[in-house]
Structure formats: C-alpha cells, structure tokens
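Recall the central idea of this unit: under ordinary conditions, the amino acid sequence of a chain determines the structure it adopts. In this exercise we apply that idea directly, starting from the sequence alone.
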Amino acid sequence: MPSKDPLQRFEDIPENVARIEQYTHDLNAAAFVQDRMTYDAVERCLERISEAANKLGAFAGENCPGVPWPEIRALGNFLRHEYDRIESERLWLVVERDLPPLKQAVLTALHELRQP
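Accordingly, the structure predicted from this sequence is:
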C-alpha cells in the first residue's frame, strides 16, 4: 500500500540501498554487467530510490541537506526514459560510490527525526 508518510518514504531509500548491497556484495563491475538479473534488480531499486526522493520533495533537502537530491530524482527519469543510453559502468559507480554515503546520510537524518 502506498504511503504518504514522509518518514516511510525516507525509510524506503536505505531499504533499497541495502537490497542493492545484498544483490551486489560478491560482484565487481564486470560481473555486475554480465549478471543481467542482478543488473535489472539494481535498476529497479534505483528507480524506487528516485521515486521516494521525488515524492519527498522539499522534505528530503530540509531534513537531509548535502545530498544531491535533484540528481537522484533525475536518475529515475533517465532509467525509465533513456534506458537505451545507460552506461553499465556508470551504473556500477552509482552502486559503489554514491549509494553508501546516501544511505548513511538518510539513516542519520531518520535517527534525528525520530528523536523526541
């Protein structure tokens, strides 16, 4: 069931990052590109992350500054509408380089938001 709760949408981001980490934990860039099922699953999780960022709107930036929210939102559109132009190596860089700090930033923000 879709949620309008911004905290739930915020939680969706590290949840999907964790899924990607689970799917790719034993892979390198070459193995990732060759494993179409994992590649497709990662793309789908990235779309969810992007959609959560989209639906969070200004809440994301207000509660988790320093994260490139416009680029995260744009990634979803790129994956959906420009799928034929996706560079596999670039997608691996997102997984390897960009997702860990995103996950940490959102988890930190969630911790702070839950404080009384």
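The chain has one domain: 6-113.
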